[in-house]
Amino acid sequence: MIGTEIQERFRVHEVRFGDGYRHTSPAGLNTKERTLNVSFSGLSEANKNTLINFLNSLNSTSSFFFTLPGEAIASLYKCQSYRYTTLGGKRWTVSAEFVLVYN
User: Fold this and answer.
1) Backbone angles phi, psi at 46, to 5 degrees
2) Which of 38, 36, 35, 30 lies closest to 2, judged by CA?
3) Most exposed among 33, 62, 91, 92, judged by the fewest C-beta atoms under 10 Å?
4) Cα–Cα distance between 24 and 83 in angstroms, integer?
5) Torsion of CA 68, 55, 93, 6, to 10 degrees
6) If you write DSSP's letter for every residue of 51-63 in order, what string do you get?
7) Partners of 66 in beta bridges
């Protein structure tokens, strides 16, 4: 894996009042949203195909465990989309968007 971009957000309910005051509260139990944009670079064609076959088998409906580099605990994610590009010389990069899920 060459790189990971992490975006985190929190879901909240917000009420705005006429005097500019805002009241916020958590929107549910699991309010943290996390999206990962991960890139697997320098893959052989066989490894690219293995990764793509795995992502296709999930069909964006099944979750899988993924551990971020530097983290000790895996979390559940779903793959929303992916793309792949050639680097030439039979090497590939697969980029994917993983979204944190709570099951």
Assistant:
1) -65, -45
2) 38
3) 62
4) 37
5) -30
6) HHHHHHHHTTTS-
7) 75
Q: How many CA atoms lie within 13 A of 27 on its CB side?
A: 10
Beta bridge partners of 38: 4, 96
What's the pLDDT at 1? 60
Please tell me the pTM assigned to this model: 0.81
Closest CA to 1 of 58, 45, 41, 52: 41
pLDDT at 60: 87
Residue ranges of the chain with per-residue pLDDT less than 70? 1-2
Residue where the block lists tokens 């064609």: 45
Distances (CA, A) of 12 to 4, 29, 95, 101: 26, 11, 30, 17
Neighbours of 35 (CB within 10 A): 15
Cα–chain-centroid distance for residue 16?
A: 31
Residue-wise pLDDT for 4-14, tens only, equals: 899 999 988 99
